From TrEMBL:
Pfam families given in the database record: LytTR
Designated name of the protein: LytTR family transcriptional regulator
InterPro entries assigned: LytTR_DNA-bd_dom
Start and end residues of each HTH LytTR-type domain: 18-110
């Protein structure tokens, strides 16, 4: 008789066509709009991935990202501090925000964090 021990549940991964493997949510730092494409910045990679969907579509498909400006979305797990000028991210340059987006920031970060919490809790 063998005893099976359950493995710890990892955070869900981001499945991008052509990548070959799921990308853990914790590795994604931010999305940045580039016309009809989205640049995906991944922790530990020098160059971003370029994906052929708009930022709006990417944020709908991956709701764990917090839309912080018209052209950018960030992963709340990488936010180190919120300042009067914008966001400080771990191991990445700061992201500057307008007053309009700074007012919306707390609610958007809270919404994105709740999505991640729900995904982690619903994993089998």
């Amino acid at each position: 008789m063998s005893i099976v021990t359950p493995s710890p549940t990892p955070l869900p991964g981001l499945h991008l066509r052509g990548l070959g493997r799921p990308l853990p949510i914790s590795q994604i730092v931010r999305f940045e709009a580039d016309d009809n494409y989205t640049r995906i910045y991944v922790r530990g990679q020098v160059h971003p991935l370029l994906y052929a969907y708009t930022l709006g579509v990417m944020c709908q498909r991956f709701p764990f990202m917090a839309r912080i400006t018209r052209s950018a979305a960030i992963n709340p797990q990488h936010v180190q501090a919120v300042t009067q000028q914008g966001l400080e991210l771990r191991n990445h340059p700061p992201v500057w925000l307008s007053r309009h987006y700074l007012k919306r920031l707390p609610a958007e970060l809270s919404r994105a964090r709740q999505v991640v919490d729900r995904q982690v809790c619903s994993e089998p």
